[in-house]
Amino acid sequence: MPTLITSALVCAVRHHGEHGAIAKLLTPEHGLQAGYVRGGRSRAMRPVLLPGNGVKAEFRARTEDQLAGLGVELEHSRAPLLSEPLPAAAIDWACALTAAALSEGTPCPALYQALDGVLGAVEAAPAARGWAAALVRYELLLLAELGFGLDLGRCAATGGSDDLAFVSPRSAAAVSRAGAIGYESRLLPLPAFLLEGGAGDWGAILDGLRLTGFFLERSILTDRRADVLAARERLVERLGRAVG
After folding, report:
1. Which of 17, 57, 97, 122 is at a distance of 20 to 30 A from 139, taking alpha carbons?
2. pLDDT, mean of residues 181-193
């Protein structure tokens, strides 16, 4: 990738040196890409390099193994949302998860479209009911894209596809109410909106976040990536306070 010019979503930024920054951006066709932004800590660049912003990015590197120099121009700002506690927490978590979970350079167009959709939903409906279910679905998609998808098609105990209400934490497979008898306390609730569509009520959404959170923590956010869970904990705590 000597030169790449593309639209992208800002996912993570960290300081590098006295004035620069290293940014991780999710691109439509080239997956997660990192680059060094000269002057990335300047007053002019700080409002551009915010998680959730859409940018036009130009990556330039002499070799495939070299960290690219990165130039960015703002295409779409979501900065106003960052002053609102719930939207800010949602954007922070979705972008931090993406930056921590994905390997650089692996194409993932479905995740780009889904993340753009989640950010758009947060922007369109800052009152969390409009985007919380979309965020749960994004987490499920990310698990599937990384090879840790849940099997929600049929019951692991009976083989049937009716009345699926739980997920086994061991097999990541759905379990029906009949198949779960006597074992309910060992299983994770499966909210109906993940099977039937729609937004679900708040109880179902919080169950969905518990479900995806379990598998994200177990399968993806391990070792050095575990620190990003703090962003998720902030989001879940704020959602819990918001819905009482």
Report:
1. 57
2. 96
**Residue 25 carries which side chain, given as an amino acid letter?**
L
Average pLDDT over residues 156-183: 96
Distance CA 236, CA 238 (A): 5
**Distance of alpha carbon 104 from alpha carbon 31, whole angstroms:** 7
Mean pLDDT across the chain? 92
Tokens 């099997």 identify what position? 151
DSSP state of 115: H
With pLDDT > 70 as the criterion, what percentage of the chain qualifies? Answer: 98
Indicate the DSSP class of residue 199: -
Question: Is 39 in a helix, a strand, or coil?
Answer: coil
Is 90 exceeded by the pLDDT of residue 223?
no
The helix-helix angle for 132-145 and 109-124 (nearest 10°) equals 170
Does residue 175 sit in helix, strand or coil? strand
> Which residue in this structure is represented by tokens 């499966």?
190
- pTM, two decimals, is 0.93
Half-sphere exposure of 194 (CA within 13 A, CB side): 29
Residues 6+ apart with CB under 8 A from 210: 188, 189
Query: Nearest to residue 201, comparing CAs of 191, 211, 188?
Result: 191
Which letter, b or e, does each residue of 161-197 get, where b requires 16 or more Cβ atoms within 10 Å of its Cβ?
eeebbbbbeeebbbbbeebbeeeeeebbbbbbbbeee
